[in-house]
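Lab notebook, bench 4. Still working through the backlog of constructs that have no structural model yet. Next entry is a single chain of 202 residues. Request: give me the structure tokens for it.
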Amino acid sequence: MTLYYEQEEYADRDFSSQDLRDAEFRQCTFVRCRFRGARMEDLRTEHCQFVDCDMTGVLMNGAIHRNSAFTNCLLTGANLFAAVFEECKLVGSDLTECQMNGFTIKGGDWSYTNLRHANLSRQDLRGVRFVESDLMECNLEKADLREADLTRAILAKAKLVGADLREARLDGVDFPSLQVKGARMDLTQAVLFLRSYGAKVE
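Model written out:
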């Protein structure tokens, strides 16, 4: 039987290790709740808010999230295999050491998010906000980053080979630390790139 929750509000609740598989959450709010190791495979959320929640090691493979927010949440070690985040807000959350094969981002705000070492190759990341996000050593090969906002994002040792960066905001990005062979850039980005190596562009 599918568990269905709508317009529910929870604060400081412990859902750790609970079985929430195939559950549906609509317009629910969770503040400082614990979901450590919870079974949330094939979960569906829509217009939900998860604030300061501990979701360490949560099993969320196959989950679909639409217009939901996970702000300042701890998702370290979570299984996000084949999970979809559509127009979601992950500001300030930590997704290190997550299982992300088949993981999909569709728009949204991922500013200040820790995505270090994530494999985002070939992803359609057009228009996604990654302001000051930690993308160190991320695999962004052949990713479509057109119109994405990467202002002051940490991209040290990130792989951008073959990525499309046209019209993306790259202010404050450390270009010499990137692998950009074959990446597509527009004129503004090309100027930033050359200046980062000390060239005088007139």
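Notes after review: Helices lie at 187-196. The mean pLDDT is 93. Flag for follow-up if needed.
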